[in-house]
């Protein structure tokens, strides 16, 4: 380890530069010594009496002088309430105000059934707010609300996605932190606010309710409600620290990070630190490098001995890192140094953020942490919105044709379906991978709730393979009967008649992989919980939250909506932000050329002697989507100097085609591409390759590559045309 680069990019103190000029010597023995080892070391140069005085007596004297109340870091929970004063009142007013605007009944008559439903909803909000505010967590909700509004009100009107269990909280819904509605399935009139909860216990998601018009005013009612108890997020008494995770596209993420400084104080927010440990391959490198430095012949050293030493190094702390989106918040009245040291990331003294030296998990119970994470889905949604004008929030979650894509490609009207696709889910988030599509083929989801369960099954550990998959394939039960999300355990146990508190504890044990306590199992059997359900619960190691699954599936259904009804825009966005590599020459040649490349690359997928490179794997992924697009009657045109964007593919509905972005050309960077876009704004045509080079930041290689693609067809070499360029 002392050969690794030291802090500040210098050498470790035990490995100074001059050591290379000295004869080889052993490294000092650096472990912490026991009292006996210390005495043995001191006795080598001191009388035993003096050695005992220094090692034992003096150490105890120093210890006796240290105050008992000194602790290395503060313990307890330190919410940043003073950073945003009156957050408790603000969040209550916000939630209650939104509730009144959305749920106060305007029907004009005192319908007791509607009143009961509204009172039930109000009671849930009050129970949550009482726990949130009473436990000092209102500031957490308020910060999340502010950051979302900051990015939504930015000039580009960014879209924010929620994740994690925050969708379990109705207060979060009313605070506009999440669009997931955790109430039981219900109909709600957007005009007069008539509210009716479904009495059909077989319907687990409000999106699966039949559509109805309001019985009071005739307006088509909204259907919603995902039936998620708040306890999964806030604890049984709303006492848990709310861990609110938000998804932002890259540009919005940077803005949100900066706004935490504005709202909470520039010296009160820090990037969360991580601990990076030595990986197995790195450990092998350490061991082999050590033997090489001391002059040993590696061929003569037993490989098992090298593996043994490497295993001892694996998992040891190597350095500290930075969480990709975690922000640690220090209360206004406290100093960060009461909790942790801080440092510049990667020893970059010019960095605009400081990072906590300790891993955040060591401060989890003391300081608030926000996960302001980067994700591609919000960017995709913004592009879809801007390209089509469709209001993302208004896309229905129960469109039968859209939902059919998860089990059949029929609605895509593929003219030959060369890849023999069994679903239409290719390129859809969550479900478009090979594993995702195989799960869809086996489980055959028919409803939104089925897709929720599928999402939970794909993200859990020991939930699908060897568990739910076997139950479905063997006909023991269907998707509705398996355990998919953690919250479903609690609601199902309650429906079977178990106590709410016990149901909560069963859910918590199962989702953490602890199995079932004997007394829980006995009680479940006494309440006629099926044997297969009990045995399934015992196998589970981790369960996905239903709120998180809901947010992801809503995003997937929206993408499927664009795939079906706005295909050119769908493929344009896919190739722009979800593809990393393209073979444009093949894509331009059309369907048959793409098929031939798919065959060639697929044949090498399991070839150890000639494996696919990472770039080839990406091209295969792109080819599969490009083939589907061609089979739907659309095509790829060439890059156009006057129409292509820097990185976004352009839809050309008139020609049923896509125009690629400049960045599909290897080595053509964003700045060079942007210079072409800026140069053409003058309205002047490019007269020649010479003119193109002089007016843009393209280099000779870029121009050559564009020329080979046929993009520069018709452009002469120089502005001064020769006679031969006419022929």
In terms of topology, how is this protein built?
Blueprint lengths: L34 H9 L4 H18 L21 H17 L8 H23 L3 H15 L8 E3 L6 H5 L11 E3 L6 E3 L24 E3 L6 H4 L10 E4 L1 H15 L4 E9 L2 H14 L9 H11 L3 E13 L12 E2 L11 E5 L8 E7 L1 H13 L11 H5 L29 H10 L4 H12 L4 H10 L12 H10 L4 H12 L6 H9 L4 H9 L6 H20 L1 H12 L5 H6 L1 H13 L10 H18 L3 E2 L13 E3 L4 E3 L10 H11 L8 H7 L4 H9 L19
Parallel strand pairs: 5-10, 6-9, 11-13
Antiparallel strand pairs: 1-5, 2-3, 2-4, 6-7, 7-10, 8-9, 12-13
Structure summarized in a few sentences:
The chain is of the alpha+beta class.
Main β-sheet, spatial strand arrangement: 1-5-10-7-6-9-8
Helix fraction by DSSP (H/I, runs of at least 4): 40-55%
Shape: globular
Please report the distance between the alpha carbons of the first and last residues. 69 Å
Can you count the beta strands?
A: 13
The tally of helices reads: 27
Q: What does the model show?
A:
There is one protein chain. With 727 residues, the chain is of the alpha+beta class. Among the domains are: 32-70, no CATH class; 82-234, no CATH class; 245-376, glyoxalase-related enzyme like fold (2-Layer Sandwich); 395-459 and 545-565, DNA polymerase, domain 1 (Orthogonal Bundle), CATH 1.10.150.700; 461-543, no CATH class. The chain contains 27 helices and 13 strands. The chain has helices spanning 35-43, 48-65, 87-103, 112-134, 138-152, 170-174, 231-234, 250-264, 280-293, 303-313, 376-388, 400-404, 434-443, 448-459, 464-473, 486-495, 500-511, 518-526, 531-539, 546-565, 567-578, 584-589, 591-603, 614-631, 670-680, 689-695, 700-708; strands at 161-163, 186-188, 195-197, 222-224, 245-248, 269-277, 317-329, 342-343, 355-359, 368-374, 635-636, 650-652, 657-659. The strands form 3 sheets. A 7-stranded mixed beta sheet has the order 1-5-10-7-6-9-8. Strands 3-2-4 form a 3-stranded antiparallel beta sheet. The termini are far apart.
């Amino acid at each position: 380890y002392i050969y690794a680069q030291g802090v500040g990019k210098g050498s470790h103190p035990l490995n100074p530069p001059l050591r290379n000029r000295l004869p080889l010597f052993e490294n000092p023995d650096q472990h912490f010594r026991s009292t006996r080892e210390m005495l043995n070391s001191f006795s080598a140069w001191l009388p035993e009496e003096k050695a005992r005085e220094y090692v034992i007596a003096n150490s105890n004297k120093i210890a006796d002088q240290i105050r008992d109340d000194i602790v290395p870091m503060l313990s307890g929970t330190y919410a940043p309430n003073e950073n945003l004063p009156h957050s408790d009142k603000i969040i209550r007013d916000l939630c209650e105000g939104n509730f009144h605007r959305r749920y106060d009944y305007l029907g004009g008559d005192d319908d007791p059934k509607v009143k009961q439903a509204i009172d039930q909803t109000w009671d849930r909000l009050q129970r949550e707010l009482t726990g949130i505010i009473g436990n000092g967590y209102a500031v957490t909700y308020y910060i999340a609300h502010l950051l979302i509004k900051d990015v939504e009100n930015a000039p580009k009107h960014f879209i924010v996605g929620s994740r994690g269990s925050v969708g379990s909280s109705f207060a979060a819904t009313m605070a506009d932190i999440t669009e997931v509605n955790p109430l039981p399935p219900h109909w709600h009139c957007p005009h007069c606010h008539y509210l009716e909860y479904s009495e059909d216990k077989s319907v687990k998601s409000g999106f699966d309710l039949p559509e109805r018009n309001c019985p009071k005013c005739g307006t088509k009612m909204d259907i919603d409600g995902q039936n998620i108890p708040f306890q999964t997020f806030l604890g049984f008494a709303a006492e848990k620290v709310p861990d609110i995770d938000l998804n932002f596209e890259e540009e919005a993420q940077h803005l949100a990070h900066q706004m935490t400084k504005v709202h909470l104080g520039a010296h009160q927010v820090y990037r969360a630190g991580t601990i990076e440990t030595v990986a197995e391959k790195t450990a092998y490198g350490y061991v082999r490098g050590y033997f090489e430095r001391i002059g040993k012949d590696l061929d003569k050293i037993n490989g098992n001995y090298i593996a043994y030493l490497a295993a001892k190094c694996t998992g040891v702390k190597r350095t500290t890192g930075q969480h990709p989106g975690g922000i640690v918040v220090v209360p206004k009245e406290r100093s960060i140094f009461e909790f942790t040291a801080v440092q510049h990331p990667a020893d970059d003294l010019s960095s605009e953020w400081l990072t906590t030296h300790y891993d955040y998990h060591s401060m989890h119970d003391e300081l608030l942490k926000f996960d302001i994470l980067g994700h591609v889905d919000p960017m995709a949604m913004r592009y879809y919105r801007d390209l089509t004008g469709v209001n993302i929030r208004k896309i229905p979650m129960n469109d039968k044709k859209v939902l059919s894509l998860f089990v059949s490609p029929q609605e895509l009207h593929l003219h030959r379906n060369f890849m023999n696709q069994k679903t239409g889910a290719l390129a859809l988030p969550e479900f478009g991978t090979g594993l995702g599509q195989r799960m869809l083929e086996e489980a055959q989801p028919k409803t939104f709730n089925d897709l929720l369960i599928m999402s939970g099954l794909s993200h859990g550990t020991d939930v699908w393979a060897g568990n739910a998959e076997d139950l479905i394939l063997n006909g023991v039960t269907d998707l509705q009967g398996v355990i998919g999300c953690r919250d479903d355990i609690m609601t199902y146990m309650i429906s079977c008649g178990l106590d709410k508190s016990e149901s909560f504890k069963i859910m918590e044990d199962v989702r953490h992989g602890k199995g079932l306590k004997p007394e829980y199992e006995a009680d479940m059997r006494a309440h006629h919980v099926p044997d297969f359900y009990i045995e399934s619960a015992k196998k589970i190691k981790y369960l996905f939250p239903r709120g998180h699954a809901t947010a992801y599936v809503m995003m997937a259904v929206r993408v499927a909506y664009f795939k079906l009804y706005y295909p050119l825009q769908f493929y344009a966005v896919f190739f722009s932000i979800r593809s990393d590599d393209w073979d444009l020459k093949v894509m331009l040649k059309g369907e048959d050329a793409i098929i031939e490349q798919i065959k060639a690359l697929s044949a090498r997928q399991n070839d150890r002697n000639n494996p696919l490179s990472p770039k080839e794997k990406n091209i295969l992924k792109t080819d599969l989507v490009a083939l589907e697009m061609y089979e739907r009657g659309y095509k790829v045109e060439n890059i156009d100097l006057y129409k292509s964007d820097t990185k976004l593919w352009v839809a050309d509905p008139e020609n049923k085609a896509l125009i690629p972005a400049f960045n599909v050309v290897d080595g053509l960077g964003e700045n060079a591409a942007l210079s072409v876009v800026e140069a053409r704004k003058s309205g002047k045509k490019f007269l020649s390759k010479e003119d193109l080079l002089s007016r843009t930041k393209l280099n000779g290689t870029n121009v050559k590559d564009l020329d080979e693609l046929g993009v520069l067809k018709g452009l002469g070499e120089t502005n001064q045309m020769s006679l031969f360029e006419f022929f």
